Amino acid sequence: MSITVNGLPVPLPSDPRVSLLDMLREDLHLPGTKKGCNQGACGACTVLVDGQRILSCLALAVQYDGRAVMTVEGLAQGGELHPLQAAFVEHDGFQCGYCTPGQLCSAIGMAAEVKRGVPSHVTGDLSAETIALDREELRERMSGNLCRCGAHNGIVDAIFEVYAETEAAE
């Protein structure tokens, strides 16, 4: 039994009670994914599994046998920051930085949801073929990721710059 983490196959822990979060942090020494509340309420532990965002503190590692997990450590490619990471820097989308890894992974998963046409609570037209990623839609979709230090507006600006412009260009 194994999973792929950031492009590399790794064995699953022998103890089926180990959370995906603890496996990433303690077994694989990937400290980017944060343990915030450990109850699924803050979003600090958000990672991508097969491109979809999940809360790794609520997931058992063994549930993801054969799947691909992407953490914040896997976002940069070839020494280049992911465009969203660069936008976070440009827009000062972090202060303490604790929520940043979860915010980044969640935003990437959120953008994929929008592209697939998955509606949110505030989506106006549920029959529309495309969803406009305006600031209200973005804030609703990112509401599960909490920022406690005050960088929220910079986070929204960074995500909006990368994904709203991308959506408008397509």
TrEMBL record:
Record-given protein name: 2Fe-2S iron-sulfur cluster binding domain-containing protein
InterPro entries attached to this UniProt entry: 2Fe-2S-bd, 2Fe-2S-bd_dom_sf, 2Fe-2S_ferredoxin-like_sf, 2Fe-2S_ferredoxin-type, 2Fe2S_fd_BS, Aldehyde_Oxdr_Iron-Sulfur, Beta-grasp_dom_sf
Keywords (A to Z) from UniProt: Iron, Metal-binding, Oxidoreductase
Ranges in a coiled coil: none
Record-annotated 2Fe-2S ferredoxin-type domain positions: 1-75
Taxon lineage: Bacteria, Pseudomonadati, Pseudomonadota, Alphaproteobacteria, Sphingomonadales
